[in-house]
Amino acid sequence: MAAREKSIAFARIRAEVVRLVGLIPEGRFTTYGSIAIHMNVIPRHVATVLGHLTPEESAVLPWHRVVAANARISPNMPEASARKQRRRLKAEGLKIDKEGYIQDADAHFHNVGVRRNIRWSEEG
User: Fold this and answer.
1) b/e code 7-31 from CB counts within 10 Å (16+ = b)
2) pTM for this structure?
3) What letters, b where the CB count within 10 A reaches 16 and e where it falls short, cover 81-94?
4) Tell me: the pLDDT tens digits for 87-99?
């Protein structure tokens, strides 16, 4: 894939991750994997986008509503970010155990949707 195609694909992926995260309702959460499956990408793509938000985007986008597999705050996240995520989720009514797992996860899970057949490197 040429560099131009790759940058266009990344811009499209980034825009869709931001759009989908913006749709997660307060008091609900989803996982990197569920967004990735819906978008036909890998979870690392979703995590990379969210890990590189601008301060302005981070202030308005509910990034804290996206957690790792098994409804857990990512153990790979910087500690300060994990604390902020925990505080924000608790403020929305979610209960989180000491290991970072969301309790009663099924009742709070936001289903992003079924897998879409998207080819990110193509125009259109």
Assistant:
1) ebbeebbbebbeebbeebeeebbbb
2) 0.88
3) bbeebbeebeebeb
4) 999 999 999 999 9
